[in-house]
Design goal:
It comes from Didymodactylos carnosus. This protein is of the alpha/beta class and 716 residues long. Among the domains are: 5-201, P-loop containing nucleotide triphosphate hydrolases (Rossmann fold), CATH 3.40.50; 318-436 and 685-713, Rossmann fold. Helix content is 46%, strand content 13%. It contains 31 helices and 20 strands. Strands 8-9-19-14-15-18 form a six-stranded mixed sheet, sandwiched between helices. Strands 2-3-1-4-5 form a five-stranded parallel sheet, with helices on both faces. A five-stranded parallel sheet has the order 13-10-11-12-20, sandwiched between helices. Helix 15 links the parallel strand 10 and strand 11 (365-370). The radius of gyration is 27 Å and the shape is globular. The two termini are 47 Å apart. Bound molecules: pyridoxal-5'-phosphate.
Length: 716
């Protein structure tokens, strides 16, 4: 396709401007602050651009123009078909582009031609006066509509099949639109125009679960940089767009990357352009070892596993933490701030942060982990990290580490002191308290549901149950959001280990830490008593009642306790179920699953499998279980579960060898990134007391060292 290649190279240098219409994100409809703005409808021939434009023009009280009929043919004084015949494909595109460069109208709804998007200079020109709305219509529908239409005015038609032309153009549209509208057969122009209005009016604003609203309003990029709200609440979007079953159907069959893009787009992204999001997603998930990114496999009976551990550090955290650094890289370029990271980890977040953020060489990273609360492999992953990192084993539990992180974020004097050591330093969070870290997790359940549809296990629209091992309530909240998007999810089950505060809370409506003892378990990643994302959950299900949330979570901070009223309690129970698994049951489940299926499941997965198995499966509704980490991250627990004799060794490699030697073990199947660990050197072996001053002192020492390194580099 020589001509297509030519067009492609032309388009490489055209990157659409950032969407500037969303920066304000106030309660006003977005259009009212720029009534003059043009709305450009873009899409293949037969997408309905012209008819939708007419309806939309009425709804928005704008003029309407069809580029073919009201611009090109008027100016050329000849038909588009004749012009194409006269000039040929390339000549036509050039002439059409030149004509578009003269476009100076304001306050129009414009239906573009199918080929306008192929001319980058004119698209850039148009982007200055309006936004591009992409009518994303299924190709099969376009092909059948084109059969019925006069199709003598499509560029490329003389030499290529219509399907090829459409596929190529789709790739251009995909990189140009500001707003995607997923269009289905059976939708009328009026339906489509209303969806467009909804999207144009979607509030782009984020607020705190405890009521804080920035006067200048915060958009996606702001909350990604900030992590936590100043009132200690968590950032949440004011609104998001549901996904209808018909829209979901359009996601079916797409790659994980394409699904992720379409799901994340349902949430307000403000000035982050979809084309940037697309390239970030592709780059992030390119690091995964499995083509499906998150494959779904059958376990036993009605149980299916989402295998989330094919990323570079072998837990689901990679899905977010490969994405977040790339996002911050794009949005913080030239913002005059040096972005650092401060993270508390129960094991997997730390390892995933250290891998993901090593791509930002100028960002100092501080990781706090409970020194006796992570597995031998997790510890090795963190201690062998490279780059400007400070990894501290804290003589305390995860909750202490997380509270430290929240404290340090909100201590402005301290942050000024840090910035004196490293100029313009600003710490962000990569825990799931950060919305941008959490958002990619909403995709898991949507993608996995569609995988079950693609594998003919369910039909679209049929319900499934979901069971997820829960610590900070992140993944399970992702599933709750998926349900609120419109996914037909029946039961959502949160599975805890013996730190079963969530299971008790769902049962009693009381969140009580007063007499609770923190326990170190063989599932360290869910050894958590303060489940931060519960706050977002309560906010979501109380229809954004921040007064309730503020009261409950301030009570928790002050009194280590809160109790919800009966109404809220029953609402909670209608949204989620919960259960928990003892240490002994967890080990037994690893063993029984292995015996029954030959599969190795990690202890966290086993916690969920055990809880899931306690539910009646007679209705044969599939139970999707989140397998959150690779089993080889927890070799001690695996060997305890699978061997008759308890393991004597503490050597990671010996443990890997024993695992490999077990029957059914696919010999190549220890995660390749974990195997590399034994070749690396442990450098970050420092431990610190569970005490704010001591931790702050360590961070300052590290920052001093970091600042001399960057000064040294600059002198070079
Ligand atoms: C982080 C983690 C969890 C808990 O996830 P939340 O979303 O915080 O509830 C469960 N299992 C593993 C392996 C994890 O790393």
């Amino acid at each position: 396709m020589p001509e297509m290649d030519h067009l492609k190279s032309k388009n490489q240098y055209w990157l659409p401007n950032l969407r500037s219409w969303a920066t304000d994100g106030t309660k006003r409809p977005l259009l009212s602050d720029s009534e003059e703005r043009n709305i450009f409808l873009m899409g293949p021939p037969g997408a309905g651009k012209t008819t939708v434009a007419k309806v939309l023009g009425k709804l928005l009280e704008k003029h309407v123009m069809d580029i073919d009929d009201d611009w090109l043919e008027i100016h050329w004084k000849t038909s588009v078909a004749d012009k194409l015949a006269e000039l040929g494909d390339e000549g036509f595109l050039e002439a059409e582009g030149e004509e578009m460069l003269k476009f100076q109208k304001k306050n129009y709804v414009v239906s573009l031609t199918g080929s306008n998007a192929l001319h980058s200079r004119s698209m850039e020109h148009l982007s200055k006066s309006g936004i591009f709305i992409y009518l994303d219509v299924p190709t099969s529908l376009i092909l059948s509509r084109c059969k019925l239409m006069k199709i003598d005015r499509i560029v490329g038609q003389s030499t290529k099949s219509l399907a090829d032309i459409l596929a190529y153009r789709q790739s251009i549209y995909e990189n140009s639109y500001d707003i995607r509208i997923i269009v289905n057969d059976g939708q009328t122009q009026i339906d489509i125009a209303h969806v467009i209005c909804r999207e144009l009016n979607k509030l782009q604003k984020y607020v705190s679960t405890r009521g804080f609203q920035n006067e200048n309003s915060l958009e996606f990029i702001d909350v990604a940089k900030r992590g936590l709200s100043p009132d200690r609440g968590l950032f949440v979007p004011i609104s998001f767009s549901p996904l209808s079953l018909a829209e979901l159907e359009r996601l079916s069959g797409l790659s994980y990357q394409e699904k992720a893009l379409r799901v994340i787009e349902r949430f307000p992204l403000g000035t982050l352009h979809p084309s940037q999001l697309r390239s970030i997603i592709y780059s992030a998930y390119g690091t995964f070892l499995h083509d499906d990114v998150l494959p779904v496999t059958h376990l036993r009976k009605n149980q299916y596993l989402i295998e989330t551990y094919f990323g570079p550090t072998a837990s689901f955290k990679d899905l977010s933490l490969q994405l977040l650094p790339r996002l911050l890289n794009v949005v913080t370029e030239n913002d005059g701030v040096r972005h650092g990271l401060l993270v508390a980890t129960s094991g997997d977040t730390g390892t995933a942060v250290l891998d993901g953020f090593s791509r930002l060489p100028n960002s100092p990273i501080v990781v706090l982990y409970p020194k006796d609360g992570v597995s031998i492999v997790q510890k090795a992953q963190m201690q062998t990290a490279t780059g400007p990192v400070c990894v501290l084993g804290v003589d305390g539990d995860f909750d202490f580490c997380q509270t430290m992180v929240k404290d340090i974020f909100n201590d402005s004097t301290l942050n000024e002191e840090f910035a004196k050591i490293v100029p313009y330093l600003h710490f962000s969070s990569a825990n799931s308290i950060n919305w941008a870290r959490f958002l990619p997790q909403v995709v898991f359940t949507v993608s996995s549901y569609l995988k079950l549809v693609e594998q003919n296990i369910i039909k679209l629209g049929e319900p499934i149950d979901v069971c997820i091992p829960t610590g900070n309530f992140g993944n399970i909240l992702g599933a709750v959001y998926a349900r609120h998007l419109g996914l037909p999810l029946r039961r959502l089950i949160a599975a805890s280990n013996v730190n079963n505060v969530i299971a008790d809370f769902v049962k009693t409506g009381v969140y009580d830490l007063r007499t609770r003892q923190f326990m170190h378990t063989i599932t360290p990643s869910i050894d958590i008593l303060i489940s931060s994302n519960l706050e977002r959950f309560i906010y979501l299900i109380t229809d954004s009642d921040y007064t309730i949330v503020k009261q409950l979570f301030e009570d928790l901070e002050r009194n280590h306790f809160f109790k919800v009223g009966p109404e809220l309690h029953s609402k909670i129970q209608s949204e989620i179920s919960a259960g928990w698994t003892s240490e002994a049951e967890c080990l037994k489940t690893i063993a029984s699953v292995y015996k029954e299926t030959g599969k190795f499941i990690d202890p966290h997965t086993a916690v969920a499998v055990h809880v899931a198995s306690s539910y009646d499966d007679s209705e044969n509704v599939p139970m999707l279980i989140s397998s959150t980490a690779h089993y080889a991250k927890f070799p001690t627990a695996m060997l305890t579960a699978l061997q008759e004799q308890p393991t004597q060794t503490t050597d990671m490699n010996v443990m890997f060898d024993i695992l490999r030697s077990l029957p059914h073990h696919p010999s190549s199947n220890i995660h390749p990134e974990l195997e590399k660990l034994s070749l690396k050197t442990c450098v970050h072996t420092k431990n610190v007391a569970a005490n704010k001053e001591a931790i702050v002192e360590e961070i300052k020492q590290f920052l001093k060292q970091f600042s001399t390194q960057i000064v040294g580099k600059q002198q070079l």
